[in-house]
Design a protein that fits this description.
It is globular and about 55 Å long. The protein has helices at about 5-20, 45-65, 65-90, 100-115, 125-130, 145-150. It is mainly alpha-helical.
C-alpha cells in the first residue's frame, strides 16, 4: 500500500489517506467529507479474502477444512478489527475502547506510522512489525482522549 505496485491501494492509502491524516494535528479527522477516507472501500474485504484464499486452500489440503474455516474467520476478524480500530484512531469520540491502555498503545504505534510510512505498519498486531523489523517503539505514556482532542 505504500509502494506503487498496484495503483488503487497506493493511491487510496499512501497518497490520499496519508495525505489527509499526517502525524500532526491532522492525524484526527478535520472535515466531515474526509470520513470516507479513513476506511477502505467496501469491496476491499472480499478482494483480500480472495487473494489470501489460495494459502487457505493449501492449508486445508494438508490440515483439513477446519483449518480453512478457522483461517477464513481469523482473516475476517482481523479486517473488521483493523477497520474499527483505525476508525477510532482517526475519528476519536471518547468511546470506552479509546480509554483503555491497549488502545492508547496501539494508537501511539499507529501515530508513529503516520510519521514514518514504512514503519509500524500493523495496526492490530504490532508483533508482526517486530518480526519484520519495521517496529519503532512508542513512548510508555500514550495520550489520553482529552489530550488527543486538544491536539485536534
Amino acid at each position: 500500500m505504500h509502494m506503487p505496485i498496484w495503483n488503487y491501494p497506493f493511491t487510496a492509502h499512501a497518497l490520499t489517506h496519508h495525505g489527509l491524516f499526517r502525524a500532526d494535528y491532522s492525524y484526527h479527522i478535520q472535515r466531515e467529507e474526509d470520513l470516507e477516507k479513513v476506511t477502505f472501500a467496501w469491496w476491499n474485504a472480499p478482494a483480500l479474502l480472495l487473494v489470501q484464499s489460495p494459502l487457505l486452500f493449501i492449508a486445508a489440503y494438508f490440515f483439513g477444512w477446519t483449518t480453512f474455516a478457522g483461517g477464513l474467520l481469523a482473516l475476517i476478524a482481523d479486517y473488521v478489527l483493523y477497520e474499527y480500530l483505525h476508525w477510532c484512531m482517526h475519528v476519536p469520540q471518547d468511546r470506552w475502547l479509546e480509554r483503555t491502555w491497549v488502545f492508547r498503545w496501539l494508537n501511539a504505534h499507529h501515530h508513529v506510522h503516520h510519521l514514518y510510512a514504512f514503519k509500524n505498519l500493523n495496526v492490530v498486531l504490532p508483533l508482526a512489525d517486530w518480526v519484520l523489523g519495521t517496529l519503532i517503539p512508542t513512548p510508555a505514556v500514550n495520550p489520553s482522549f482529552e489530550q488527543r482532542k486538544k491536539a485536534a
